[in-house]
Amino acid sequence: MHADAGDDADARFGLWTFRLLDLTVYVVVLVAVCYAPLAALAVALSAPTLIVSGGFVIGFLMFGYGTFLLWPSPPWDAEVTEEGELEVEYNTGSGTLGSREETALQRASQRLPPLSRTQRPATDRFSRGLKLFVASLAVLGVSYLTETAVL
């Protein structure tokens, strides 16, 4: 009995470690993808405030899109028929909340070490919306840090 409980705890620890590692790599890659062009453009234009304002705008756009991806779909859809009656249809579709579809950025981050050593299915990762939401907070945090350092 204890051996099964220990194996289950090890599997859970391994899963959560992988999820947090995957989240961290995704956030670092996305922050780098956001700030590398901003930094190059700021250097080219001699406008250091471009990093701050650009990071702020990109961070809030990502925040909004991440929130949208996390928003659950309603369990029903209501339409008014030609006769003026209200018709309610219950949604039976699956994957709206917590979609685990793999994006190009996710595939690229999976090739980076230490994730390149693991072969976990997409269902073991956090959802794309959650990762984008956390990355948006990181982008906004970097924007704040650059604002206090630059301005």
UniProtKB/TrEMBL annotation:
It holds the Pfam family DUF7555. InterPro entries: DUF7555 (IPR055977). The chain crosses the membrane at residues 20-44, 50-71. The keyword Transmembrane applies. Keywords: Membrane, Transmembrane, Transmembrane helix. It comes from the Archaea. This is Uncharacterized protein.
